[in-house]
Amino acid sequence: MYTDPIADYLTRVRNASSAGHRVVEIPASKLKKEITKILFDQGFILSYKFEDSKVQGSIKIALKYDKMTKDPVIKKIQRISTPGLRQYAGANELPRVLNGLGIAIVSTSHGVMTGKQAQRENVGGEVLCYVY
């Protein structure tokens, strides 16, 4: 059993990406589904599929690689807020990741969104992770 399901999600994606796997399967939750949608919308993953079963369901993610060099598109995916040390930021304090080249995924009162979107909507929240 693991105490931080978001860190487990990020670690599975990171490990599969660095090992060169095409698809990674992860146990599903509402928060993980929202993070997956953001990664797809921002172009970090190729596609995804939610498979619902009676108990929990799973998420199948097709990872994206550079066509020429075969390097993974996700260079780094890093957990920021942990269960032991939550990291919150106001709308004006949301971080810029790699001078705007990466994204910060933020859990707000309006749902899970990128840091840029949260700034546009003028809401702060818990900074879940950085992806670049």
Mind explaining what this structure looks like?
It is a single chain. With 132 residues, the protein is an alpha+beta fold. It has 3 helices and 8 strands; from the N terminus they run αβαββββββαβ. Pfam families: Ribosomal_S8 (PF00410).
Secondary-structure map:
Blueprint (H helix, E strand, L loop, with lengths): L4 H15 L3 E5 L2 H12 L3 E7 L6 E6 L13 E3 L8 E2 L13 E6 L2 E4 H6 L4 E7 L1
Antiparallel strand pairs: 1-3, 2-3, 4-8, 5-8, 6-7, 6-8
Organism: Kordia aestuariivivens
Function: One of the primary rRNA binding proteins, it binds directly to 16S rRNA central domain where it helps coordinate assembly of the platform of the 30S subunit.
Pfam families: Ribosomal_S8
Beta-strand fraction estimate: 25-35%
Outline the biggest β-sheet: 5 strands, antiparallel
Radius of gyration: 15 Å
Give the overall shape.
Answer: globular
Can I get a quick summary?
The chain has 132 residues and is of the alpha+beta class. The protein has helices at residues 5-19, 30-41, 115-120, and strands at residues 23-27, 45-51, 58-63, 77-79, 88-89, 103-108, 111-114, 125-131. 25% of the residues lie in helices and 30% in strands.
